Amino acid sequence: MTHQIEVSVKCPNCGKSLMNSSVLVDDMPSIELEATIENKKGRIFLSQIYGSYNKIFDDVDDVANAVVQCACPACHNLLPTQRTCFCKAPVASVNLELGGAVNFCTRNGCKGHSLEFENPDDAFKLFLDKDESRYL
Ligand SMILES: [Zn+2]
Ligand SMILES: [Zn+2]
Q1: Selection from 129, 117, 109, 97 nearest residue 31 by Cα
Q2: What is the pLDDT of residues 27-69, one digit of tens each?
Q3: Separation of 43 CA from ligand 1 center, angstroms?
Q4: Which-ligand-closest: CA of 72?
């Protein structure tokens, strides 16, 4: 069995789920965000699989190295940014449905653009949830 971690996330502003089950990335429901790239507004759909860089662009161009302004599709507030990535783009944060938060770099194509756990215990918790049957 693979140790694949799936993260379900919600908006830190309004608490609404960001998961979209009609747009699949990596054969899983995606994380939907309102995205502004170089003054064009559209959507991006991120993979919910931890460590996957797959994503879908809708109405916005996949501009290499552009910084993506990410907002919640429900409340339209920008996602909070916690810090600056080594590439100097802001790092946005979303909340895990199970509690805790994950961060990702908003620069398109940056290796920091994978989901990153703010608290490593959260990742551990998801590992345990996933493999629960093995520990019982
Ligand atoms: Zn929201
Ligand atoms: Zn970065």
Answers
A1: 97
A2: 999 999 999 999 999 999 999 988 788 999 999 999 999 999 9
A3: 14
A4: 1
